[in-house]
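So, read this over?
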Amino acid sequence: MDVISAFASCPAVGFFEFIAFAQACDHLPATPAITEARRNLARQWATRNCDTLVREEHDTYLHIMSASTGVPAADLESVALAALTTRIDDFGDGGFFMLAARLTSHLAVEDARRVFDAMGELFEDLAPSREASDGPFEAVPTATGDVDVTLAGLLWATLGDAAIATRWKAANAVLLLAQLGCDAELAALSEFASGHLSVVPYVDSRFDFYEQHARMWLFLALDRASSEPNASVLAMFVPTLRAAVLDDHAVNQVLAQRALRRLSAHQLPDVTADDPILDVRTAPLAAEFERRGKDLRPPLSPIDGDGLTDERFFFDFGHYWCDHLADAFAASVTDIVNRTKRTIESIDGFSHFSLGEDPRRDAGAYANGSTYTNHSAWPVQDDLDFYLAVHGMLKVGGGLARIHDALIHPGDEDDEYQVWLHRFLPAREDGRWVADARDPAPELRFPALTSDDEKTWRWSLTKRDFSERMGTDSEWIGIYEFSDVSGDWASEDVRIDSALVQPELAPAPPWLYTHAHADGIDCRDDRGSAVSFPLPRPATRVIEEFGLSSDSDQRLWLHGGSPAFRCSAWSNMDEDRERARGSHGQRIEVHRSFLSSLLDHWNRTLVIRVSIGRDMNGPYRSYHREEDEDEFRRIESSHKIYLIDSRDQWLEL
């Protein structure tokens, strides 16, 4: 009892030391004196840490202390609030708001409103309510009480967000609604897209709503959702899709028409397989206008830039965004820019642009450096200049595609218009996204390590580590891998390569394709940003000669109905820390029985090299850490070579 009282009175004891001590006293007998001493310990803790408990909302620790001492958490909160009156002068504005939030949790609704109104009045001089943000509360448009409409309104507003990552999250949400068959929410969303419902209650009235973004990312989602088995749930969007096909927006034309083609197979009354809308021209005819490197086309009549806004678009717009479009139609980059300037006059936000304004920038809504455009890379957040320039250009391209033929260079598969347009469409043309090919990341393959393991772990590789990574005891043998995994203290990278060789040492034919690179707008979706498509896979010669078939995402390859190859790609790497944590990589495995058949058919031997490298502190070494002069800063990877013949005999080197 005396020890507990002395501990509670010690001024040097900190927040968490109180909790640890209280838990350590759990084994003591529950005599009246000890029980009261422990209760006093809890009250002393709440008194001494009153500002922390109120401002930082440490409710979890309130309950932990309550469980150890028997003092109800509500009583400890009351002790903290009472003690706070002696420190109120140093509480600060943020502390007052936290105090208001905690107090209102105990008040009736009307009393809680009065508390928050009083808090808001503290900032009336700094940010007058009738001039700041949306203005006085009574002037803000009221959203409908319908939950389905409210959800759809928030989703429509998010589809038009300035950040491309946020727009992709919204597109994934639309896809999920379709997959779940949420008719009511989708019907409400179609009302927003058609203009029958207003987005005003769901956006900041200070800023122009990026409606062109919302429309484009909605069509990206509808294009993907139209490949789902229950795509008929999208029937309410058919009128909006039909209108988009007839519009000049190059991306929306294509996405809408593709979605309608797939929906026509679902026997919907508003779109059938022979519907003329499916044959509307949304891409130019390709023609070879070159002879001996000379463009023989008559140039387009240029658009005069006089009389248009003098505001220039972002620095790289002409050369890196308009060049292929200009080449496609025998126009100059300057002419495409001038056409874009004229086109944006009908896009929301032009009135501010014409005055050289960007309300979001003026309000500090963009994160520092987030609107920077590097060549052809899409920025993290789109300012008004970028938003208008891109959608104006897409409308110019779609309009030209309806009436002009596009240049295709001799020997090329795609004309210049398609080269330009590919970057704005999903990388895959089968109605799915790159993210659909992403697999769950495997579990970390090494245990949690401490600093004491540093001297030995990097050097502790065994034969078993190599054989497990390749799968010597499994039906599936790893023949290609490029992966990295990082924990709190350590990292490991694995590289597996393989080749087919003949006894005569003749050149080995390529049997794997591992250099895929996806290049499309869905590569900016965080769910698939770390995955290339197609996945690493068997080489074309192997596929054709053995008649292999695969699933839609090319994960599993079959030979005569039996598994032959298994391909995967994953990433859950979190780099928003001092050191990255997680795993990313790609891998190909071959089934043992198919491998024997392949080696026998081609009279080859398979050579596999497995490389494993280990390091401490992950890929980002802390610069605070002092290195020993004799310590290796980087450890070279260790290797093992395996040879496998057609009789499944192994030789380890």
The two ends are 69 Å apart (CA to CA). Residues 618-630 have pLDDT under 50 and may be disordered.
